[in-house]
Structures are given as structure tokens and as C-alpha cells.
Amino acid sequence: MRYNINARLIYDATDGTLTLPDSDEPDSQLSITASALLYFFLRHTGVVSRDEVLKKVWDDNGLTSSNSNLNQYLSMLRKTFRHYDIDNIIVTVSRGMLQLNQDLSIEILADAPPAPVAPAAPAAPPEPLVAQDAAEPRTPPAARWHSRARCWYLAGGCLLIMALLLVVFTLVSARVARPISLTHISHSQCELQASDEMLRSVSANAYVRNFDQVRQRLRIGGRPGERFVFFYGDRLETNGLGRVFLAHCAMHEDNPFSYCDNYFYYAWKPQ
């Protein structure tokens, strides 16, 4: 199923691609979960609860649902469509209720007709049967059975070893989940949150300085009512390349759900 959204973008629900109307090649592609979330709202244009969305998109597909996952993919969809000048594709109607933006123009496009099937080539004449040489030795049935049994034993042993290795890997890689404790850092007019582990590894001045560098590069201002969560790897303190995470969240007093734009740098070097 394909949809023309605001005459600006064509969304294909079969593979999650986004294509400009005057192009034959996809311009971008949504992830599987983001595409499933958008497709749900395109099929349910009325007001729906967050619980219904979590059940239909996550629980019914065997995925672990949570409000944080839903917030993350809502933010991802809004950011993606904002790139195509389509704002607020999914809006919050009231507390816990969501809806596809009713100001959008949605046109369902007919699927492309199937390609014509080429006529089948004439079947080749069957090869003549060749009589087996009477002098050729034949494998006894018992030997053939033992050979097949040996293959099954080998396959079963390989599967057992792979299962044991998987169990050992799971036990070794298991980690006890611990909550992250955040500390408020005074900075300008916005609210800056830092993890305690982050502050133990770097001074507050260096933390704020690196936060400003990342925020200015992203051209994000700090205004009242906005919250930032900032984290970076140890190598950011040196001249090496480090990993960076920045969450830019809007806080609303009348809405307990805060939507965040998340930014990641996997090889960021300080200026």
C-alpha cells in the first residue's frame, strides 16, 4: 500500500521507503518499527490511546513495549517528516491520546500493475533412460541406512554444541540493569542533566564546555522549558575521537509525556 502525503512525499508501507513525487528512486527509508508505527496511524486516523498503539505495534508483534520506545519512534517520525516540510505528522490530542495530523492531505495510491509474465520456454525433451550396468556394484540397504544415521548424528551433535555455546554466551554477557542517576547542572536558561558517572570522570566546567560545542554545532538554542541530557566518551577529553549522545527534550506542564530529539555522534572530535 502506498500513500501520497501532502503531495510532497510518497510512503510505501511494504518496505518503508519515502520517495519524492517526481523521482523513481527512494529518497530515504524508515526502520521496520517506525514504518509499522506510521502505517498503524494511516489505517487508524481517529484518536487512539497510547496503550492501543503499544499493543498493536509492539505487543502483537512479539516486541517489548514501553512508553519510552513509543516516545523515541514518535520523535523519529516527526524529525524525518520535518525534513520534507511536513510538521507534526502525529500529534498529541490530550493526555495519553494520539492522532494522525488531521491537517495533512493523505491520498491512497493504486499499487503498480504486475509485470507481464513471459511465456514459458518449451520443455526440453526427456533424456533417454540409461540401463544400469549389471556389473556395477550396488550399495546394500543396511549400509545406506547407517550412512544416513551417521549424518543425522553429526547434525544433532553440531546443533547441541551451538546451543551450549549460545547459553554460555548469554550467561557471560548478562548484565544487571541499574538505573542512571542524573544531576542538574546550572547552565544558561535551559535545564542540563548529567549522569553521576559522567561527572565523576570530568569536571563540570569541561562538561559544560563540550556540551556547548555540540549544541552550537547542531544549532540548538537553550530556552526556558527545555531539558538536555548530555553524555560523551572519555576520549572526548583528548584529541581522539569520542562517542556523543545529546537528548533535546521539550517540557510541558500540561503534558506528562516529553518528546525528545536524540542526536548521536560515533566519531566526534572537539574543536
Automatic annotation (TrEMBL):
It comes from the Bacteria. This is OmpR/PhoB-type domain-containing protein. InterPro entries: OmpR/PhoB-type_DNA-bd (IPR001867), Sig_transdc_resp-reg_C-effctor (IPR016032), WH-like_DNA-bd_sf (IPR036388). Keywords: DNA-binding, Membrane, Transmembrane, Transmembrane helix. The keyword Manganese does not apply. It comes from Shimwellia blattae (strain ATCC 29907 / DSM 4481 / JCM 1650 / NBRC 105725 / CDC 9005-74). One of its GO terms (biological process) is regulation of DNA-templated transcription. The chain crosses the membrane at residues 151-172. GO terms for molecular function: DNA binding. Residues 24-100 form the OmpR/PhoB-type domain. Coiled coil: none annotated. The keyword Transcription regulation does not apply.
